[in-house]
Amino acid sequence: MQEQETPQKKQWHDKYYKLLLLVPAFLLLFSLSYLFIFYSQNGDIMHRDISLTGGTSITLYDNLEKIQIENDLSSKLMDLNIREIYDLITREQKGITIETTSDGEETTEILENYLGYKLTKENSSFEYTSSSLGKSFFNQLLLAIIYAFTFMGIVVFFLFGKQKKIKVLITLLGIISPILFFIFKVLTIQQALIFSFLVLVVNLIIYLKYNVPSLAVIISAFADILMTLALVNILGIEMSSVGIIAFVMLIGYSVDTDILLTNRILKKEGTLNERIFSSFKTGMTMTLTSLVAFLIALIIVSSFSAILTKIFTILVIGLGFDILNTWITNVSLLKWYVKSKNEN
Fold it and tell me: Which CATH topology does 50-129 take?
């Protein structure tokens, strides 16, 4: 039954919810444009560290001056990156980690000549990743993100879709690539990436035809990832394997409030605006609780752990965009869909 409201009671959101879509639409267009320009200039969609590009990482257990080493060795070691290591309790510096894309033997020789002593297991630790291994690992992480999106979309369609045959179809499409790649091993990583991406596109077309609310959830989650990636690049954060994992975690954090919102709106208990506001109170409580926790964790770990700092930074940025995309993008699309459906 269509909701009836007098002009006096008609809320501002009913007038401007479509106009509000321009805000996330502009940010999404800006993010896509920025990533396109970034790719054309760098040949990649993100800054990658040596765990994904290949290179050498040497940790020196000595109290050394970071800035001095950067000034002295930046011309000798390629793509030099130095991080200081601190004790968790005392905050005392315990060493530094030197990362470079230079060869392992060359890096060791340069450091030994610079430091004036031989590097051993007692005073250092050494890690080398070949470029082929780093590229392969990067492709596997991208595949994990695509699989996460695909199965997240299947779950959402199962929750809100009505056609059982379509549910079976998208499930079969979603599991073909993992079965061929992981079980039968007949697909290479590049073939699995292409195949999985095509399956994801086909599923999105199916959502558009058979269940718009499911598509709205996917769009919101996708916008979270894309906007976060663009801002991470703008901030110059180098993406590592743990950074990619943080993006996978972000998919889960992004979709929970979207599912809550969609579920309450489609139940039709009370007026549409009442259902939206009820979802907003619950969803914002969930998101802000996580956001505050991550902010506190970020402040604590920023002084001693570069890895944890990277994870929490990505999650904080992502949750910020999730608030925008859930309560503007998803709300506006769902409201548009419900009102259009009622009118028809």
Answer: Alpha-Beta Plaits (3.30.70)
